[in-house]
TrEMBL record:
GO cellular component: plasma membrane
Species in which this protein is naturally found: Chelatococcus reniformis
PANTHER family: ABC TRANSPORTER ATP-BINDING PROTEIN, CONSERVED COMPONENT OF ABC TRANSPORTER FOR NATURAL AMINO ACIDS-RELATED
The protein, known as: ABC transporter ATP-binding protein
Keyword Zinc: no
Superkingdom: Bacteria
Keywords: ATP-binding, Nucleotide-binding, Transport
Encoding gene (name): livG
Family: Belongs to the ABC transporter superfamily.
SMART domains xref list: AAA (SM00382)
The keyword Metal-binding appears for this protein: no
Transmembrane segments: none
Pfam families: ABC_tran, BCA_ABC_TP_C
């Protein structure tokens, strides 16, 4: 199987600091893949390179067989890479509908003249965009807040709005950066259900950074583990759960001394 996303020996340095060092792995179409690791492991830097925010100093990243080094950052959404951010990046004074509509910009083809007079293709695109936004609102179960100003919503609701905006781009690959951070148990379970539905119902491949080991182990097809900028392990949740190198990274002990305690228990203890 040709992977949807392929990373080979990807590295990133900031002056004298190496944030990511020779990281390589594949993400296949139709799977949920998680990237985990302690704070400072290089996870967000890796995401920033995959989404075009940063350029690697070395190595290659290909998406659908296309070298992302040859793609302008402004075109990443257009070729099928969508993303949410660890820190919310919403228009707080806009409504839920208006924020999700922003994600449709990559599908607009109208000229300035058509847009000024709002006829022909512009009108058709506007109708199609609003219809798609309503479908996303229904999918994420936020019909009751569709007209609410985003700045008045709870943190968990704002997270859903940001997820909706990313879905509005109609990505082939969705990057989720700590979606459940700061959420309670009920909100976390809802997001886990949405992620599974995004893969199963919408056919979107998901790559996510997550600190909540319970959600990682429950819904991931494969897990990649970073520590100090390097990939130290990769495999199914069952393979990762008791990997000595992973236990060492999370517990700070030598691999030989690591007890066979599941990684998700260590993550839960660390969150507590």
């Amino acid at each position: 199987m040709t992977p949807l996303l392929h990373l080979q020996s990807v590295s990133k340095q900031f002056r004298g600091l190496t944030a990511v060092s020779e990281v390589g792995f594949d993400v296949n179409a139709g799977e949920i893949c998680s990237v985990i690791g302690p704070n400072g492991a290089g996870k967000t830097t890796l995401f920033n390179m995959i989404s075009g925010v940063l350029r690697p100093n070395a190595g290659t990243i290909t998406f659908g067989g296309q070298d992302l080094a040859r793609v302008k950052p402004s075109r990443f959404a257009a070729i099928g890479i969508g993303r949410t951010f660890q820190n919310l990046a919403l228009f707080k004074h806009g409504t839920v509908v208006e924020n999700i509509l922003v994600g449709r910009h990559v599908h607009l083809r109208s000229s300035v003249l058509e847009a000024a007079w709002f006829f022909g293709r512009t009108r058709r695109e506007e109708i199609a965009a609003r219809q798609r936004v309503e479908e996303i609102i229904d999918f994420l179960e936020i019909e009751h807040i569709r007209d609410a100003v985003v700045g008045t919503l709870s943190y968990g609701q704002q997270k859903r709005v940001e997820l909706g905006r990313a879905l509005a781009c109609e990505p082939k690959l969705l990057l989720l950066d700590e979606m459940v951070s700061g959420m309670n148990l009920e909100e976390t379970e809802d997001i886990a259900r949405f992620i599974l539905d995004i893969r199963d119902e919408l056919g979107i491949t998901v790559l996510m950074i997550e600190h909540d080991m319970r959600i990682v182990m429950d819904i991931s097809d494969r897990v990649q583990v970073l520590n100090f900028g390097r990939r130290i392990a990769g495999g199914t949740p069952a393979e990762i759960r008791n990997d000595p190198a992973v236990l060492d990274a999370y517990l700070g002990r030598s691999a030989g001394q690591a007890q066979a305690q599941p990684v998700e228990q260590q993550g839960a203890a660390a969150d507590a």
